Sequence to fold (135 residues):
Amino acid sequence: MSPRTSFLSRLIGLYCILIALSMITHRQAIVETVKALLYDPKMMFVLGVITLGAGLAMVLSHNIWSGGALAVVVTLVGWSTLIKGLLLLFLPPHVGMGFFLRELHFDQLFYLYVAIPLVLGIYLTYGGFTSNPHS
Fold:
């Protein structure tokens, strides 16, 4: 596995774990913050710009579709971040808001939406720290 895959898996993994734990700790505040963010087009634009930048950085630096599951998962995270950034920038605010709050049932399925980054984070962190990167 490449050193870049190892680094990104640790970075993304730890990020996901810490975000998930923060979400569990502050459930109500997170739900209210997400709702407020989705109702504010200016903040959605800022979030879209930041997410697009992170997604582009990951895709341009790590677009590896072979070399094991860990490398592919890191690549998929990069592509999904890039696509999310594009959606945040180009979807009308009411469409994104409606999809996220109504169709995905963020309030009702909150702990499922916390479990996904937590499990992903544990997998990536474990894989990144136990791998033997070669130069």
The mean pLDDT is 90. The CA atoms of residues 45 and 98 lie 16 Å apart. The helical segments are 3-25, 27-38, 41-61, 69-90, 93-103, 110-130.
